[in-house]
Amino acid sequence: MNPKISWSSGLALTVLLVSVALTACGYKTTTSYGAPTAVALARYNANGTPDTTNLVGGTGLVTTDVNTSQDDIAFAIVLQPDGKIIAVGSSSTTPAKVVVIRYNANGTPDSSFGNNGITVTSLPSADADGFAAILQADGKLLVAGRSSPMSGFSSFLLLRYHTDIGTGTPGTLDTGFGTGGIVTTGIPSGVSNSANAIALSGTNIVLAGQSKIGGRFVFALAQYTSSGALDSTFGSGGIVTTPIFSLDALAAAVAVQGDGKIVAAGLAGSTSSNVWDVALLRYNANGSLDTGFGGGDGIVTTDIGSSSNYANAVALQADGKIVVAGNAFASSLANTSDIAVLRYNTDGTLDTTGFGSPNGYVTTNVGAFDNGFAVAVQADNKIVVAGNADAGSGDRLALLRYNADGSPDSGFGTGGVVTRAASGPSTIVGAFAVALQPTAIVVVGYD
Fold first, then answer.
1. In 92-203, where do the E strands start and end?
2. Greatest CA separation found in the chain?
3. What confidence tens digit (pLDDT) does each residue in 368-416 have?
4. Kind and range of the H or E run holding 62
5. C-alpha torsion sign, points 173, 25, 85, 104
6. Which of 151, 160, 211 is nearest to 185 (CA)?
7. What is the pTM of this model?
8. Rounded CA gap, 283 and 144, in Å?
9. Which of 117, 180, 328, 341 shows a CA-CA span of 20 to 30 A to 372?
């Protein structure tokens, strides 16, 4: 499971045991991995080698300490058309704060943005975490996450920032959006609410995450207009909650198809037994479930095999097929988890003939406990997955590339796999987001 779900929901699940996932829960001490983590930005050439030429420092990796005494983590990446790179995440201060960092194309801080490239946003008497980000057509930056007040229930968090001097000072909140650039949304009857993913549907903004209603977690979606107001044409007053049978269910990722239908990926299972399956749901543009997807109810669950399986990321191919990345065979007792990639046809069936035949999915064992946290599809339909390996025991950054049929791309790294050790002083490193440039792959995370 993606750690942003872990601590936003309070679930004590297998993947939470990775050292970085404990950070924002407040359960981690620096003694376990040397020093607090910094935001990490890494760029790789098309063949998987570190880009030591075009990224400052000559190592292919740049780290940014927002708060030297606390853990800083990037969960999302946005590439601007001018080549600048934005990393979005959290700093685990008390209370936690949303962090937005903008880099020039060569990885140096963009001094025209925020305070030497960094903007830190706090909320009154509440933790604030940034888990996802996207650029609007006008260049403004949207950030989604969670607001958790010191008393009361957590809520969806949505912020909008200026990125161009033509609309406002870069790095400042857009005061024409919501209240001072900030929107918080509670889910009716829900607790433990969090927005883990964001997408655009035309000019509307779609958030996906989870809410705990009646003692059970459910998928939760909210749609907003461009002003930050809930869209009354979507669901009930702009909000949709979807239980998956009698299971707990949480959404980690969201994408919007060309026809306006919304695809949300995550997991469904039991918090008591700690057994989970991949969950994939498709909604119509108005928030109703798409009965033409899955078994007629808009819901697909996939059990890859023993132990637990999670979907952490989703991407759409040009032909409409749906690619999901996450975990397979996750077991804390056995200290095992493989990276999983699944591909679905447009009707929700697994692509058993074109991908990972005969299963429609592939799994890759990199180290002891591996996590696939992000996915992107190249123009040639090769699939790039970013995450970590050996989580909880000296995390290594992991970057994998698969051919369009699911086989490892032998022209990338070693057998389709690239790993990287921490640069220090922290002893752990990993990636939570990935983006594609014309001749390079960029990831952000922690180091």
1. 97-103, 118-121, 126-135, 141-149, 155-161, 182-185, 190-201
2. 55
3. 889 999 999 999 999 999 999 987 768 899 999 999 999 999 999 999 9
4. strand 61-64
5. positive
6. 211
7. 0.94
8. 20
9. 117
